[in-house]
Design brief:
There is one protein chain. With 130 residues, the chain is mainly alpha-helical. The chain is 45% helix and 5% strand. α3 runs antiparallel to α4. The longest helix has 21 residues. The N and C termini lie far apart (41 Å).
Length: 130
C-alpha cells in the first residue's frame, strides 16, 4: 500500500458497495445499518492491508504517536453520495438535514448509536449538561 493509504478513508471497494446498495428514499435506520457495513469494511481493509494511522506530533508536548483509527460517520457517508456521483447534490442536502433532525430527536452520536447518559461525579443521578 502507498504511504498515502494511512490517511485514506474511502477505498474503491467501499465506494462500489455504496453505489450497489444505494436507493433514493432509504430510511434513516437503513442508512445507519449501511454505515455500519461500510465502517466494518474500512476496518477490514485497513487491517488486512496492514494500514496503520499516520503518526502525529503533539504541538504542546512534542510527543509523537499514531492517530486514532478512522471511522465513517453517517454524515460523511451521506456527503460521499454527492462526492462520488451516486446521488444528486440537492438529494444529499435534504438527506443531511433529515439526518440532523433525526439524530437530535433520537439523541444519537455521529455514528447513529444512542449516546450514553453521563452523570455527575458524585453519582447524584443528575445528567451532566454540556
Amino acid at each position: 500500500m502507498p504511504a498515502s493509504a494511512a490517511q485514506r478513508v474511502w477505498f474503491p471497494e467501499m465506494i462500489e458497495k455504496l453505489r450497489a446498495v444505494w436507493k433514493a428514499g432509504v430510511s434513516l435506520v437503513s442508512l445507519i445499518e449501511l454505515r455500519d457495513v461500510l465502517d466494518s469494511m474500512l476496518c477490514r481493509i485497513r487491517s488486512t492491508g496492514g494500514i496503520r494511522p499516520p503518526v502525529f506530533k503533539r504541538p504542546v508536548c512534542g510527543k509523537t504517536g499514531r492517530g486514532a483509527e478512522p471511522k465513517i460517520s453517517v454524515r460523511a457517508m451521506i456527503l460521499s453520495l454527492a462526492r462520488f456521483g451516486i446521488a444528486k447534490a440537492e438529494e444529499t442536502r435534504i438527506l443531511d438535514r433529515e439526518w440532523t433532525n433525526f439524530r437530535k430527536q433520537n439523541q444519537l452520536d455521529l455514528y447513529g448509536k444512542v449516546m450514553a447518559n453521563e452523570f455527575c461525579a458524585d453519582d447524584c443521578g443528575h445528567p451532566n449538561v454540556r
